[in-house]
Amino acid sequence: VWRVDRNIEGVPTDKDGWQYATNFTSAFSFQNTGTSYVRRKRLAKYYEYNKMGAWAHIPSEIKFLDVAAGGTMLPGGEGWPVCVWGVSKECRVYVRTNISGINPEGDDWVEVCQ
User: Fold this and answer.
1) Phi and psi of 3, rounded to 5°?
2) H or E stretch at 68
3) Could you tell me the pTM of the whole model?
């Protein structure tokens, strides 16, 4: 799914997602003035995960606000490059360890940057 980025480098866009400037090295604005000769729009591609089975309930003492899966392009990643991340009610970030094709539920939650 392609979506328009409505804020490029801290500058808002117009209703259609465009920013305008005199040239590409000038400061951009959401307003199209009589001296605006260039414009730019940034699109971002978002991917959706379509599960192929039911999610497994993994008992945990940690109460999560959100859990996300991804990470197919991690530097240095070899083998099965999928990560599962979670954010707790205390706003701590966790990653699930040892996820693989033969161990899809992983082993444990480890806090990132303790």
Assistant:
1) -130, 150
2) strand 64-70
3) 0.47
Q: Which residue has the tokens 């444990």?
A: 108
Q: H/E element holding 22?
A: none
**How many C-beta atoms surround the C-beta of residue 107 within 10 A?**
11
Give the pLDDT confidence score for residue 109 in this predicted structure.
Answer: 92
- DSSP secondary structure, 61-112, as one string: SS-EEEEEEE-TT-TT--SS--EEEEEETT--EEEE-S--SS-TT-S-EEES
Q: How much of the chain is in helix, strand and coil states, percent to nearest 5? A: 0, 30, 70
- For residue 48, give Cα distances in angstroms to 13, 88, 102: 26, 23, 24
pLDDT (mean) for 37-50: 80
Residue 18 corresponds to which tokens in the numbers above? 């465009």
The total of other beta-carbon atoms located within 10 Å of residue 18's CB is: 17
| CA dist., res. 96 & res. 100, Å (int) | 11
* C-alpha–C-alpha distance, residues 88 and 76, integer Å: 27
Q: Which of 47, 70, 67, 46 is nearest to 58 (CA)?
A: 67
